[in-house]
Write a structure and sequence with these properties.
The chain is an all-alpha fold. The protein is 82% helix and 1% strand. It has 20 helices and two strands. Strands 1-2 form a two-stranded antiparallel ribbon. Strand 1 and strand 2 form a beta hairpin. Helix 1 crosses helix 10, helix 1 runs parallel beside helix 11 and helix 11 packs antiparallel against helix 12. The protein is globular and about 75 Å long.
Length: 580
């Protein structure tokens, strides 16, 4: 590949991280007003559809982009550029088939799915979401191709394009659907043809259509992302020169490449479900088991959530409301892994290249760097969520004080879980890079089984109910990471410096959370509770964290050298004794 396009692991990760941060800011600008438009109940419908979509998306696409990236990286390392082009053509055709099948499965399975989840009002949202699977499959074909070539710009820019289109179209269509439904009720007493006996009933009916409108905006955004990548490929190409193609060996037979693609993709695909396994388990079990808990101990649950559940809410809507409140904390929880997963995406071609070329020291440095950089982000974020769970939720969702009372204790537990899930995702990518394709699958089954058992056995207990769900998430990802990490080290034949990689970020994270917690109380007394107080407390925690990192020399020279102009930065920091 031309030098200007070939990016180091950390350089590529920075590109993806910057795009992810932009996407998350846009996502917050989408979800915060969306929450106000469709309410907690509408948010429950929205997340029921989104949970199934994420799982089918993982099954349809997660294996193939990683397989494509791995194969392309291997071919680039050995100079087989004609194979690279052929892999792209084959993978696009395969993605078209899997995307069409995924769309059909979601469309036909919408009825049984919402019936099993005991959330029938989410049916329309699930149906509307189905075409998005086809578009994200096609998008993933291009992303995997460019990631294998160690060019992360197409992936990053297409993500931002999708987020912007989702923001505009999703909010506009959600508001339009609800206004149209309530306008019809005011004139005719019906909402999209369904009779409503009160304004509250009409609003509940309209919320289902508002959720579907928001999801239609997401479908349009996935099409926009696909269109951008197709245009990028047509205009910019892939950076492979004519001379490289002429010098390359003849292309491998299509059937051989397809067989290899599938052999890599199937276990990777199943392993990638681990990133969505807790969402799927929650969607299919939480509302179901909450309904059982209500049947077993209605008075116990109403006493527990006194003043948190609207008095006029029908009994059948309470599980969905609690699930919607739970998903407020899950929305915040998902912000951190979305950032750290960029390390896994960027690391896969770099680790694959080092593995193929037998460069053991480079392999060790890459593995340490991935885990260290992930820890440097995940640990302060996790302890920050433990310290400021309530204030962070109020900052993001100011219009739902009752739901936040339910969500805050859940988010504190997820603050610990976020550390393990953040480390799990890049670990899976590195296991796949060194040929251990089946390990993430086995770990997903083990961790998922633990969470499923916990959900089904304890969510139905009235005195515990939804509060146990985050413990299942914590248990699931703790099992996956703590078993997977030693397997990766043994396979790669490397020994990592555990205190440098995990210990120093852990200490810094504790200092960060403690500083944020200590700052919030006095600030709240002098400034009153609000967004400014939360921001100042977060800033205090962040300042203490940065200082502690330099005092602990938690940032390694190897990490800095992988940055653009890393040698100059490393020399500057080294002179001051600020890097390890």
């Amino acid at each position: 590949m031309p030098k200007k396009q070939k990016q180091s692991f950390l350089h590529g990760a920075i590109i993806l991280m910057a795009a992810t941060l932009i996407v998350k800011v846009i996502g917050a600008l989408f979800k915060m007003p969306l929450k106000g438009i469709i309410g907690v109940s509408g948010f429950g419908y929205f997340n029921t559809a989104y949970g199934l979509f994420n799982t089918l998306y993982a099954l349809s696409t997660a294996g193939l982009p990683i397989a494509v990236a791995k194969m392309v990286a291997e071919c680039a390392a050995s100079g087989h550029y004609r194979d690279i082009r052929r892999i792209h053509r084959i993978s696009t055709a395969v993605f078209l088939v899997t995307g069409s099948v995924g769309t059909l499965v979601m469309l036909l399975g919408a009825g049984p799915y919402v019936s099993f989840a005991k959330n029938p009002s989410a049916y329309l949202s699930v149906v509307v979401m189905s075409p998005a699977i086809l578009f994200v499959c096609l998008t993933s074909s291009f992303r995997g191709y460019y990631e294998g070539l160690r060019n992360m710009y197409p992936t990053g820019i297409s993500q931002v394009v999708e987020a912007l289109v989702k923001l505009v179209c999703g909010l506009a269509l959600a508001a339009f659907a609800i206004n149209m439904g309530m306008g019809e009720y005011a004139r005719l007493g019906t909402v999209f043809g369904t009779a409503a006996d009160s304004e509250e009933s009409a609003r509940l009916l309209a919320l289902a259509y508002g959720s579907a409108g928001a999801i239609l905006g997401i479908v349009i955004s996935t099409f926009a992302g696909t269109l951008y990548l197709w245009l990028y490929h047509k205009i910019k190409g892939d950076g492979i020169t004519r001379s490289q193609l002429v010098a390359a060996p003849p292309a491998t037979d299509k059937k051989v490449l397809l067989r290899r693609l599938i052999l890599i993709a199937v276990p990777v695909c199943l392993g990638a479900v681990a990133t969505n396994v807790t969402t799927l388990i929650d969607v299919t079990s939480v509302t179901n088991r909450l309904a059982t808990a209500l049947d077993r101990g209605y008075d116990v649950m109403m006493s527990m959530y006194a003043g948190m559940i609207p008095e006029a809410m029908p009994l059948t809507e309470i599980p969905n409301y609690l699930f919607g409140a739970y998903n407020l904390s899950v929305t915040v929880f998902n912000l951190v892994p979305a950032i750290t997963t960029t390390f896994g995406i960027s690391a896969l071609p770099a680790v694959t290249t080092a593995w193929v070329e037998g460069r053991r020291e480079s392999l060790r440095k890459n593995i340490e760097s991935v885990w260290r950089m992930t820890s440097l982000i995940a640990m302060p974020a996790g302890f920050g969520l433990i310290a400021l769970a309530g204030p962070v939720l109020h900052f993001l969702f100011p219009g739902e004080p009752e739901a936040i009372l339910i969500a805050a204790p859940i988010l504190r537990v997820l603050g610990v879980a976020v550390i393990f899930v953040s480390l799990t995702l890049p670990t899976n990518s590195m296991l796949q890079a060194v040929g251990k394709l089946n390990v993430p699958v086995k770990m997903m089954l083990l961790g998922g089984a633990a969470k499923l058992i916990l959900n089904f056995s304890l969510v139905a207990v009235p005195s515990i109910n939804i509060r146990v769900a985050p413990y299942g998430t914590l248990l699931c990802y703790a099992i996956i990471f703590l078993v997977s990490a030693p397997i990766l080290c043994r396979t790669a034949g490397v020994k990592i410096r555990a205190f440098q990689v995990f210990g120093k970020p852990l200490l810094g994270g504790v200092f960060c959370g403690a500083a944020a917690w200590a700052a919030y109380g006095p600030l709240a007394r002098y400034l009153s509770e609000g967004r400014l107080t939360t921001l100042l407390a977060m800033a205090a925690g962040g300042a203490v964290y940065v200082v502690s990192l330099f005092l602990l020399r938690a940032i390694a020279k190897d990490d800095v050298l992988m940055l653009p102009k890393g040698e100059k930065i490393a020399k500057l920091l080294e002179k001051r004794g600020l890097i390890g």
